[in-house]
Structures are given as structure tokens and as C-alpha cells.
Amino acid sequence: MGRTNAAAGMIIEDHMKKVLYKGKKKAQIVDKTLAPRLKHSAFGDFPKTHIAGKKAGLHSKVAKKQDDFSDLKPKVIPLKKGQGLGGKAVTLNPKKEAIKPKKPKAGARKKRKIPISEFRRFYDRGDLPIIIEHSGSGCKLKWTKDVDLTQLDYHHYLPIFFEGIREKTEPYRFLAVQGIFELLEHGQARVLPVIPQLIIPIKTALNTRDKDIICICLKILQRLVTCSETIGEALVPYYRQILPILNLFKNSNHNTGDKIDYSQRKETNLGDLIQETLELFEQCGGEDAFINIKYMIPTYESCVLQ
Fold first, then answer.
1. DSSP for 211-265?
2. Could you tell me how many helices (H) and strands (E) the chain has, helices first?
3. Over the chain (306 residues), what is each successive 10-residue block's mean pLDDT?
4. Which of 21, 35, 20, 19 has its CA nearest to residue 212?
5. How far is CA 101 from the centre of its chain?
6. Of 131, 128, 115, which is closest to residue 171 (Cα–Cα)?
């Protein structure tokens, strides 16, 4: 059996979660609470007057009729437990200590809201030369007949595909991830001039602090560094934009004891992925790579200088 690629692996993982967590209310199969919602139809959202369950012209709240004698009526303030005077007795028991409030959390690793990507807008508009080919073995990305990947304008298309890294909704996620891997495979040296345009989409995807998005972003960074010999050194000036989030999740490993952690086989263990990515950065980044990585991630130890 052949090894599945990263894009197809995400779809298989979603189907596995639906099977394993079927019938369990507490388990949230796919966390899309912070992801942008889809439109109501292919032509956009429906007008508010045509949404089911809401009648036209009744959206505004109807003002309540005011009573003319409301000012003369006595105002009754409901009492809470322990505020009234009835039923109180003297006691010698010590006073109960007040409940201390919990220490607030900084929320450095808390998930952030995912902004809408430009990839979704371009794909919905039909500006991208890609389609999904459905087959018995799974979904495949298919480029239109008039597209030659060796002659494609990477300055225009590659940043758009990198915008789709932060998508969590199908088919946008599959198309963006699989499209990036195929473009990097055929691009090689043509990817180098586009590096400055890729930094902002990568930084935006990492700043969502969503572990699923960070994992696929790290796999793309590994493929980006190894697709050409000069890209590793070109990424060194941008370590200050990329590495701060990796520093937060560097030690994000599960202490499972004697249990099995399937994330190692699926290559979704965040701590291991970050360590592999940093080692690739050091090996492909030249002489200045290690000192820049060490500046942003002080706990990193060199894999070359040993």
C-alpha cells in the first residue's frame, strides 16, 4: 500500500474521527468554531428577509406598551440567599473563608480566530486552474488542460495557495495543501524569488495557534526548504516572523506512559515536527542559521555542531 500524502491524510483523519466519536456528544469531531463560515449558496448569502424562520418586516423588536401607573407601583427587589432578615440566628461557628478567585491564564497557546483566506475567494470565483477529481481511492487534484506547471506564474499563484494553509473546510483545505506540494515539486529554483510573498501567509497560519494548521504548515515548510538549495539561506532573515510560535509549542508532547501515541505514525506530533523543522532549517540555512534559531528559541540545541 502506497504512502498517503499530507492533503489526503487530513481527509482520512477527519473520517476516522467521525467513526470513532460517533454518538459521543462531548467529543467535538472537527473544531470549526473559529473558522470562517461558508456562504449560504454559490451566489452568496440570502437576504435577511428570505431566511427561513424569520418573516419579512418583523426583524425589529416591537416596543412594549408602557403602563401609565408604572411609576406609582412599589418596586419589588428580589432578595438573594442570606440577604433577608428573617430566619437569622446567632452562631459561634467560625466564618467561612471567601472563595479565592482562580489565577487568570495568559492564553498564549489559546486558538485564535481564523481570518478568511484569499484562496477561498479566488477558488469560488473560478480564477484558479484546478478541479477535484473524485475516484474510488480518494480525491485527487487535477490541473486544467491548458496549464503547464513548468511555465506557471509562481509570483501570482504560489502566494494564493499559501493563503489556503489556514483553511479547515473542504474542499479548500485539500486543494490548497495538495496544490502547494505539487507547485513546490515542479518549481524548484523558481520558488526563490517568491519567498518574500510567502512569509505573511505562513505567519498568519501559525498565529492561529491551531495545532492542526501548525502541523500542516510545518510539513509545507520542510518541503519548501528542501525543494531548492538556496531557499534555506533565503529564509534566515525571516526567522523572527516564523519561529516565535514554534518556541511556544516546542515542548508540546503527550506523556502517554505505556500507551500508544498514533500521532507519531501519522506525523502529527507537534513537538517532533517542530524539532525536525528546526534541524532542517539549520542544515539548509548556512552558517548564520544556528545563531538565529538560538536567538529566537534558546532551548534549541544544534544537530550539526556536536
1. HHHHHHHHHHHHHHHHS-TTHHHHTGGGHHHHHHHHHHSTT-----TTS--TTTT
2. 10, 2
3. 62 70 55 70 76 51 57 72 66 79 86 87 87 77 80 88 88 88 86 91 91 90 89 91 90 74 72 89 88 91 77
4. 35
5. 32
6. 131
CB contact at 8 A, 281 and 225: yes
What's the DSSP call for residue 57? T
From the centroid of its chain, how far is CA 206? Answer: 7
Query: What's the CA dihedral at 26, 30, 32, 37 to 10 degrees?
Result: -120
Radius of gyration, alpha carbons of the chain: 27
| Per-residue burial over 10-48, b = 16 or more CB atoms within 10 Å of its CB, e = otherwise | bbeeeeeeeeeeeeeeeeeeeeeeebbeeeeeeeeeeee
**Cβ pair 231, 191 in contact under 8 A:** yes
